Amino acid sequence: MNAVQLAAGLNDAGAASLQMVVREVTVELDEARVALESFAESPAENRLALGRLCEHIHLARGALRLAEVYGGALLAEEMEHVARYVESNCADGKADADGLDSLVRAMEQLPSYVDRVASGGRDVPLALLPLLNDMRAVRGSALLSEGALLMLNLESAATAHPAPGASGGESVADIARHERPRFQRALLGWIRGGGSADHLASLAAIAATLEATASTRAVYGLSVRCWRPFSRKVCQAACQ
Questions:
Q1: In the CATH hierarchy, which fold is given to the domain comprising 12-138?
Q2: CA distance 115 to 22
Q3: Which of 106, 130, 154, 196 is the most exposed place for a label (fewest CB within 10 A)?
Q4: What is the DSSP string of 121-134?
Q5: What is the sign of the dihedral through the CA atoms of 114, 115, 119 and 125?
Q6: Which whole number is the average pLDDT over 72-78?
């Protein structure tokens, strides 16, 4: 088996794993939908349904993270937060209208988003930004920026396995030397605190470039241990 055949095999295995995760997510979301509809019909009598909703969404969120469907996992996380907010603010048997509306919208959008990714579409968290911010506004949390979700886009688009010829003939060492000054400028700019979102986006882009150009198992192993966790930490910093 040559390198191209190996890469194709890894892609097939990844697709099969994603389909298996999607089936599990679909089951959990169906149960979550039933719980949400039950609560919406009678908040006073079915308040416990929100607890069941949170449980199913939490399981779906974990599966989406495992499958590295970052946009879906982020939306599921916001759904869980809003559900708990609605539950804690359900006074006199009346649910928070904005919170309930955002949950209904998210329940419609999340399955469609997951199905699109499972069918070969890109995981594009930025497409979820309006809904995510509506949900965050319901509970008074800081809104997400386009820069923060752009870094999630970069991470979700990163190569999932060593890609022969990914560097276009340029060695990883040459690419690293070329990117080093830009990396240092962005890191220094972020430490100083000016234009933090732009600097973090630059750091994430550089990390994604270095991971995507890994063309051997040794370099890819270093990338997985170093640059992928680094990208996630940068994204977390941007979302705070």
A1: Four Helix Bundle (Hemerythrin (Met), subunit A) (1.20.120)
A2: 8
A3: 130
A4: ----GGGGHHHHHH
A5: negative
A6: 94
pTM: 0.61
Neighbour tally for 74: CB within 10 Å: 23
Using alpha carbons, select from 88, 92, 130, 109 the residue that is nearest to residue 29. Answer: 109
Q: How far apart are CA 115 and CA 123, in angstroms?
A: 11
**Interval 183-234: pLDDT, tens:** 888 878 877 776 677 777 777 777 777 766 665 555 555 555 566 666 666 6
Can you tell me whether residue 91 is helix, strand or coil? strand
CB 94 within 8 A of CB 45: no
- Domain ranges in the chain are 12-138, 146-239
